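FORM 7B - TANDEM STRUCTURE REPORT

SECTION 1: FIRST PROTEIN
SEQUENCE AND TOKENS:
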Amino acid sequence: MQRVSVVGISGSGKTTLGRRLAAALGVAHVELDAIFHQPGWTELPPEDFRRRVGAVLEADGWVVDGNYGAVRDLVWAAADTVVWMDRPRATVMRRVVGRTVRRAVTRQELWNGNREPLGGMFRRDPRENLVRWTWSKHTRYAERYATASVDPANAHLTFVRVTDDADGDRLVALARASAAR
């Protein structure tokens, strides 16, 4: 485990576990959101996104977190492990709502000067409301990664399903032990 892709729905803990795994392995942590979301929430054009992510993947080891279909083929072709954050909907929703409110109230900077607007929680369009989007996509993400984990095209990858904090802790301990060898 040296090149790890961490995937899952918003609020599942991708970034938190990704940072812990990267530290345990002694490799870089890369948050795809930080590359994709430019100042003013401008999206990086697909060809630039692929080029920048491709450059990151040239390193010997890394932990990349994010679900972008535009670069999944690049990330998974270079990865040896996919960590699938498959938390229960109730857990994910509790985290997303709490995190969104906290970030909006404190005006916490996310990436490239961007901040979550509190009003975003009240928009009807799921593409503009992370809470609504997470609720509506939870099952689809679970199905996507369950299918990918048994797809023969992904036979070169080890899939690790994380359903709770204990699973994450065991994985970090395994990574730490593996890196110590």
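SECTION 2: SECOND PROTEIN
SEQUENCE AND TOKENS:
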Amino acid sequence: MSRIRGKNTKPEKILRGHLFKQGFRFRLHQNNLPGKPDIVLTKYRTVIFVHGCFWHYHRQCREGRIPSTNSNFWREKLFKNIKKDKANSSALKKQNWKVITVWECEIEGQLSLVLNMIKEVLAHEQ
């Protein structure tokens, strides 16, 4: 698992590239915020988490499943990730940050919808 990339993943880079092309400027992985959000849009006081479907257990996705081998270990690990995600989101909201979660499968399959949703959220922040 040490070789699993935690930041600068392919879906993250794709989303960042499109946001940058559309004129949004942002910071990456800020240590001073709970959960080190993948993308921080300071101007809009908004953070974006790009979640991998397997690692964050996206139940509506084919990749969001518990492996059949060593399933107790994986169930515990994935549910701990979910709990941590909720805690980080809650802490950010208490600090008056808007939190957007984007799933890997959404970026791969519906990027234009994801970008429109982000723009809509940001439009309400100005």
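SECTION 3: OBSERVATIONS ON SECOND PROTEIN
The beta strands are 27-28, 39-41, 46-51, 98-103.
The chain is about 45% helix and 15% strand.

SECTION 4: SIGNATURE
Preparer initials: ____
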